[in-house]
């Protein structure tokens, strides 16, 4: 199935860059205008100048970003800001972070070049749909710079942990860098060049199916770039554009975290809550929790509420609904409830059992009867990782209602992808993301 190999990555030259935290940054799609200004100010060589093309939020013509990024990339290579690996390598990438429910976690994966496959081949699977405009943007940057500045975050299953054991047996004593990001996540990376270890990993990975966790637009852009280069240069099997690079994590290591993306509804028709209370009586049981007004006690009560929601696990759909006045409601319905079984019959059973699917299709659009502008994402429905921020948005009047939700499990994502389905929009937020700029992939002929 999957073809995984080592590659000669471009990395920031430690002789030129003494502080790696000044030049690395999250992937392009997590960079807001404020974040861009902050990262740009940290170093003239920060990776955001490459991933976003210098000044993406300025009134400059949109397409000027691509040649600007290409100029930076070419000049920085010529100046020795970046240096290329002498021999093909795999990179072990580690992240120490705090899972909100499980506590401290140390996650390791490896960065490798992975052969591109169309989704129909069932070797590499998506779990999210893409927006064509974002794919076009990433393709424009790829064509201008002839490289990939960041890795696609991807998953595979290896219950024997054979890949992990091979990689860690060859790990150098000292990492290439240790960087703490703005959220307190500690990132480390090692370079593995042992040919026997690389061959062993390629052999183990050869029968694996890979699921994209994050980076669907970058993967779609890589496919389009491959097709364009094939048309221009021929279908050379080992050409660099036949591959892209991925940060590959083993789901069986149990070190992956998906954070919830709570829903904020800006405007709520007066009848919507009454619709929920009445027709929901036979489907969702509703209980109430009064939130204390003192901030510390309020946050403690909210965390306890979320923990109670999480404890239901796969046996019950549970949601928090907050419309103000310190009155937080818990909505509960067993999985497999008759009223939910016909939800989206064209979708696979795993999709129909997703909390996020039940929330949007059975509650927001079904019981609450929100449609049109009231059901539109990024127009009336917005998303946040923070339950505290969701509650505060209602208290300040910015939002009319907040739905608190459990995240899907890793198994949910794998099953939906294997069935050829897509998660509902904003159904997953894998955390934390690998940083951009750690191992740049050269696409030049």
Written account of the structure:
This protein has helices at residues 33-42, 48-51, 65-78, 132-145, 162-169, 195-205, 216-233, 270-277, 295-311, 349-352, 355-367, 387-395, 410-418, and strands at 4-5, 10-12, 82-84, 90-99, 103-115, 124-125, 147-148, 152-156, 177-180, 186-192, 210-214, 243-250, 257-258, 262-265, 285-290, 316-322, 327-334, 381-384, 401-405, 430-431, 441-442. The radius of gyration is 23 Å and the shape is globular. The longest helix is centred in the middle third of the chain and has 18 residues, at 216-233. Helix 3 (65-78) runs parallel beside helix 4, helix 4 packs across helix 7 (216-233) and helix 5 packs antiparallel against helix 6. 39% of the residues are buried. The protein folds into 2 domains: 4-257 and 431-442, no CATH class; 260-426, no CATH class. The mean pLDDT is 91. With 445 residues, it is α+β, with helices and mostly antiparallel strands. Strand 9 (177-180) and strand 10 form a beta hairpin.
Give the percentage of residues in beta strands: 15-25%
The biggest beta sheet is recorded as: 9 strands, mixed
Low-pLDDT residue intervals, each spanning 5 or more residues: none
What sort of overall outline do the alpha carbons produce when their principal axes are compared? globular
DSSP E strands, number: 21
Mean pLDDT: 91
Number of structurally distinct domains: 2
Computed CA radius of gyration, to the nearest angstrom: 23 Å
Report the structural category.
Answer: alpha+beta
Q: State the distance separating the first and last CA atoms.
A: 25 Å
Number of H/I helices: 13
Share of helix among residues? 25-40%
